[in-house]
Write a structure and sequence with these properties.
The complex is a heterodimer of chains A (about 70) and B (about 140).
Chain A: E1 6-9, E2 12-18, H1 24-34, E3 38-43, E4 46-51, H2 56-71
Antiparallel strand pairs in A: 1-2, 2-4, 3-4
Chain B: E1 5-7, E2 10-16, H1 22-32, E3 36-44, E4 47-54, H2 60-83, H3 85-99, H4 102-128
Antiparallel strand pairs in B: 1-2, 2-4, 3-4
Helix pairs in contact in B: 1-2
């Protein structure tokens, strides 16, 4: 994976989310889904989500549900 | 024609927020949910980057162009919705009132009550204002 927002290394998958587009609700949703397997850090205008043990497709599926929520607002 | 940026199976579509508001981007994205994964990023001031990754094998340029079409379609839909909002409201009100004429009377009474309340509040405000003393 070589995208600017999704990176994979030995420790797991790292996802960058802009705070203006993915608010606290999106981050909380990830936290409730992945629990201890997820570390969230805020760096400037981005949330940095580090998944210790997750599959890329599952992470992207979680992003989809946020899009549904945003659309229905 | 300018090509879309592609990396690792993803295609990037830069979107001007002034031309296509965020609601339009969300709606267009929703339509593409069964075909592609969607990631949004703030590219620059007033610009959102929409990244698409097809779930099944697909041409990235075609996918990006189809997304642009969808954006335009939703932008038109929301613009029309705004323009026609007042007419739609009037039509709905008329339909509702003709179905139940008693609603007209109720609405009129409520409007009168609101006006009376407003007048009373203004009168109360006037009374509370301190009286200015004249110069000697």
């Amino acid at each position: 994976m070589t995208t600017p927002f999704l990176k994979k290394d030995k420790t797991g998958i790292c996802l960058k989310l802009h705070t203006a587009l993915y608010g606290q609700a999106a981050v909380d949703q990830f936290r409730s889904t992945y629990g201890d397997g997820l570390t969230i850090v805020r760096r400037g205008t981005y949330w940095i989500l580090s998944f210790a043990d997750a599959v890329e497709a599952d992470i992207l599926d979680s992003l989809e549900s946020f899009l549904v929520l945003s659309r229905n607002k | 024609m300018k090509k879309f940026i592609k990396t690792d199976g993803w295609v990037k579509i830069p979107v001007q927020i002034k031309a296509y508001p965020l609601q339009t981007v969300y709606s267009a994205g929703y339509v593409f949910m069964d075909r592609a994964y969607i990631y949004l990023d703030l590219d620059a001031r007033d610009k959102v980057a929409v990244w698409l990754k097809p779930k099944a094998k697909a041409d990235l340029d075609t996918l990006a162009m189809e997304f642009c079409q969808e954006l335009l379609s939703y932008a038109h839909y929301f613009a029309s919705l705004k323009v026609n909002a007042e007419s739609t409201k009037l039509l709905l009100q008329r339909a509702l009132f003709s179905a139940a004429p008693s609603l007209v009377k109720e609405a009129e009474e409520k409007e009168i009550q609101d006006l009376i309340k407003e007048l009373e509040q203004e009168e109360e405000k006037e009374k509370r204002k301190p009286v200015k003393k004249g110069k000697k």
